[in-house]
Amino acid sequence: MRISEGVEWGLHCAVLLAVLPPDAALPTGRLAEYHGVPAAYLAKHLQAMSRAGLLDSVPGPRGGYRLARLAGEISVLDVVEAVDGSTPAFRCTEIRRRGPSAVAAREYRVPCSIHQVMDRADAAWRFELAKTSIADLVAMVAQNASPVALRKGAQWFQEIFG
Q1: Which of 9, 36, 128, 139 has the maximal Cβ count within 10 Å?
Q2: pTM value?
Q3: How far apart are CA 43 and CA 77, in angstroms?
Q4: What span, in angstroms and rounded, lies between the C-alpha atoms of 12 and 121?
């Protein structure tokens, strides 16, 4: 399974937006600057998150993006599905029905064993992502991030929001 870097970018942006002052928003360019990523590519992911109802797009000179819901109400899975879609990583093509051991379709009474295992793994992965919110990530960042990085981030915020 490969998750796009857009998911990583979207999650980092959601964490940053979660700590904004109440009525503030950040434009794509500022979010891209903070994370050192290309603004045009980031914009595509932020728009997907906005279409999914995770971000609000605020027009005007002090506009940009902000969370559409409370950080505790947005899960990591919400961001993953907004950016990468909800299609399971595994797609069974039923190759067991080909080759020398193939039998009539009526003989296949249950899904392929490999398909069953992959579905269980996908469900476990999604369950874990669904139970972790953006608020949880904010708390983890506050606890685990470098104090120097936190000070630099706070200084960046101070320059923008005064």
Answers
A1: 9
A2: 0.89
A3: 20
A4: 25
- Running DSSP on this structure, what letter comes out for residue 36? T
- CATH number, position 37: 1.10.10.10
Return the number of other C-beta atoms located less than 10 Å from residue 133's C-beta: 20
| Cα–Cα dist 133/139, whole Å | 10
* Radius of gyration for the chain, computed over Cα atoms and rounded to the nearest angstrom: 21
State how far the Cα of 45 lies from the Cα of 141, in Å rounded to an integer: 22
Residue 62: give the domain boundaries: 5-86+134-161
pLDDT single digits (tens) 91-116: 888 888 888 988 888 888 888 999 99
What total of structural domains would you count in the chain? 1
Distance CA 113, CA 115 (A): 5
Which conformational region is residue 81 in: left (phi greater than 0), alpha (psi within -120 to 50 degrees), or beta?
A: alpha
